[in-house]
Amino acid sequence: MPELPEVETITQDLKKRLSGYVFVSIWSDWPKYFSLSGGLSSVQRLVKNKKINKIERRGKNILFHLSSGYMLAVHLKMTGHFLFNEPERKSFVHLIFNIKKGKKHSKLYFSDVRKFGRIIFGEKDKVLARPEIKKLGPDPLEITTRDFLQLISKRKGKVKTVLLNQEFLAGVGNIYSDEALYMAKIHPLSLVEKIPQGNLKILFIKLISVLERSIKLRGTTRQDYRDTSGKKGDYFNQRLVYARKGEKCALQSGGRACGSRIKTVTVGSRTAHFCPKCQRLYK
Ligand SMILES: [Zn+2]
Questions:
Q1: 3, 89, 143, 207: least surrounded by Cβ within 10 Å?
Q2: Is the four-CA dihedral 176, 179, 183, 187 of positive or negative sign?
Q3: CB within 5 A of ion ligand 1: which residues?
Q4: 230-241: pLDDT as tens digits
Q5: What is the 262 CA–ligand 1 centroid distance (Å)?
Q6: For residues 223 and 165, which has the higher predicted lDDT (pLDDT)?
Q7: Could you tell me if 151 and 213 lie in one domain?
Q8: Are residue 124 and residue 184 in the same domain, yes or no?
Q9: Residue 2 is a catalytic residue
Q10: Domain that residue 120 falls in
């Protein structure tokens, strides 16, 4: 699933290309996308002639601020991504925004093979008041280490579960929580209330560094994720632990590489990747 760096990459692309565009119409062959918005026909009627004033990311959501106080919130879910050009796999496109700026007409394609994407359209206040937006925690890139330590001091339970909780921090998912815990040498099953402050501080610093690094590399493509030009994100090639089960741990200790095999463990419904030797279990 696209996480903060992937959604940030797409949002930055959309911002550059779409500001000032006006909606002409929306096409979709998957009306379920609009179940939270009063249905496709209602959205089609209301979105017409609405101008895109601003685009921003909130957690893993992309928010389109439209004229007349309307908002369109898109969650890419498993496989959704926006494309400026029609992809070769036309059958994956289940939503098209027909937009224009002056006399220039354009299309924005939403490719989504699994069709789990979610769209909320309506008056801005109502969209922002929906629990899936309103309950989101702060963005990790917008808080300080001190804020993080304060927030995590109020939590209990497995650190991996806490990091994945969107009400704790918005935008962190399986890939970057695995990477950050590995770099901070904290076992994913550690209890947050047992991890020393100094190690939590390192965890936050590593989390920020991996998110920023991935944004620079335009995200992670394991399978479906593409940027708006249809290009893959490069972080997958540089990942440290995620999806490296059975490979040798490359962390250094005492001047040589650890060499232990990367293992996986189930945490909630998710699979965490970790080094059993380097990552300490606090419990
Ligand atoms: Zn190791």
A1: 89
A2: positive
A3: 249, 251, 258, 260, 275, 277-278
A4: 999 999 999 999
A5: 7
A6: 165
A7: yes
A8: no
A9: yes
A10: 4-134
Q: Note if 6 is an active site residue.
A: no
The residue from 58, 77, 232, 270 that is catalytic is 270
Active site residue 247: no
State whether 176 and 83 are in the same domain.
Answer: no
pLDDT bracket for residue 269 (50, 70, 90): very high
Domain count, the chain: 2
Domain membership flag for residue 279: no
Supply the pTM of this predicted model: 0.95
